[in-house]
């Protein structure tokens, strides 16, 4: 059974200034998603499920179907504020959906096979998809996995970032994921972020972080169903609370429900958070094309 790639593409791009998931970065206007799908096809994935918003669904389909519709199965799911379990009341003035954990949860009716999760605006590199594909082929358990990157290779020069900091044991299993927000390298060269008490905490450059590239099984939806409902009951009346994937996985680890392997990859990672990141991303893609990693035209 070929694995599925779930692409989280519902972000509104508030810091970027527009929908970066549809912005062009390659020499022919290719989006970052285009390179992700190309890499996934090369690695043996059989389907892509896009998580988008309803207001740009048709525009998104019109862009993706002509490029990849004859190369891999494409499915679309919308993540909306109202996509929640029945019988739960939330704040009537809430505008945004409920975060990355919610985004994966809404794909439950489209995914029945092992699946990977990625962000639409992150470039993960072809090797990482091969690592995931091999993991699904060779793993004989129902465990999950995360592809971890070094923090120093994931920062932006133009503002703060949010990262799930990974901790693993001697067996290579993830022990916990801590979602840290507003991380940045400050003027003294030290990477810091504010904790819950708004006190600055230091992170080492080589800290392992999740870039939201995960290997899951269909059991994810069963486990997260209850977690998401509990989250909404506790925090659904808040205007900006979010249900993060790392928080859901952290609970499964702490409950002893499953192991999560930490997978290494030699792939480069880069992403776009701010408009000022765009020329840097374009330059990196052009270098990969010049080196023969990608053809000049990928579709």
Structural topology:
Layout: E1 4-8, H1 32-43, E2 47-52, H2 57-68, E3 73-78, H3 100-105, E4 115-119, E5 122-123, H4 126-138, E6 144-150, E7 161-168, E8 174-185, E9 191-194, E10 200-203, E11 208-216, H5 219-235, H6 245-254, E12 260-263, E13 270-271, H7 278-290
Parallel strand pairs: 1-2, 1-4, 2-3, 6-12
Antiparallel strand pairs: 4-11, 5-13, 6-11, 7-8, 7-11, 8-9, 9-10
Task: Briefly say what this structure is.
The chain is of the alpha/beta class. It contains seven helices and 13 strands.
Name the overall outline.
globular
The topology string of helices and strands comes to EHEHEHEEHEEEEEEHHEEH
CATH superfamily: Spore Coat Polysaccharide Biosynthesis Protein SpsA, Chain A
CATH architecture: Alpha-Beta Complex
Strand % is 15-25%
Question: Uncertain runs with pLDDT below 50, 5 residues or more?
Answer: none
In total, the number of domains comes to 1
Number of separate strands:
13
Helix content: 25-40%
Describe the structure.
The chain has 299 residues and is α/β, with parallel strands linked by helices. The protein has a single domain, classed as Alpha-Beta Complex (Spore Coat Polysaccharide Biosynthesis Protein SpsA, Chain A). The protein is 28% helix and 25% strand. It is built from seven helices and 13 strands. Strands 1, 2, 3, 4, 6, 7, 8, 9, 10, 11 and 12 form an eleven-stranded mixed sheet that branches. Strands 5-13 form a two-stranded antiparallel ribbon. Helix 1 runs parallel beside helix 4. It starts with a strand and ends in a 9-residue tail after the last helix.
């Amino acid at each position: 059974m070929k694995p599925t790639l779930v692409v989280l593409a519902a972000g509104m791009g508030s810091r970027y200034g527009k929908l970066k998931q549809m912005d062009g970065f390659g020499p022919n206007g290719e989006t970052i998603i285009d390179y992700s799908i190309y890499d996934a096809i090369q690695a043996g994935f059989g389907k892509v499920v896009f998580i988008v918003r309803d207001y740009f669904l048709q525009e998104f389909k019109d862009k993706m179907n002509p490029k990849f519709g004859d190369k891999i199965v494409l499915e679309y799911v919308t993540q909306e504020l109202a996509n929640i379990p029945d019988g739960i009341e939330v704040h009537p003035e809430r505008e945004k959906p409920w975060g990355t954990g919610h985004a994966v949860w809404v794909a439950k009716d489209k995914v029945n096979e092992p699946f990977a999760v990625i962000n639409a605006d992150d470039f993960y590199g072809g090797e990482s998809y091969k690592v995931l594909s091999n993991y699904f082929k060779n793993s004989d358990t129902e465990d999950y996995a995360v592809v971890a990157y070094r923090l120093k290779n994931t920062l932006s020069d133009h503002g703060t970032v949010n990262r799930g900091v990974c901790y693993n044991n001697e067996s290579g299993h993830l022990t916990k994921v801590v979602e840290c927000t507003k991380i940045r390298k400050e003027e003294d060269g030290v990477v810091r972020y504010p904790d819950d008490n708004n006190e600055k905490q230091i992170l080492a450059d080589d800290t392992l972080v999740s870039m939201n590239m995960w290997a899951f099984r269909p059991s994810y939806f069963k486990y997260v169903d209850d977690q998401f409902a509990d989250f909404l009951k506790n925090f659904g009346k808040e205007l900006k609370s979010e249900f993060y994937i790392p928080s859901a996985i952290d609970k499964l680890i702490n409950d002893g429900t499953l192991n999560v392997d930490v997978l290494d990859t030699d792939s480069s990672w880069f992403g776009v958070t701010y408009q000022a990141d765009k020329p840097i991303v374009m330059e990196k893609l052009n270098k990969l094309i010049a080196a023969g990693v990608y053809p000049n035209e990928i579709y």
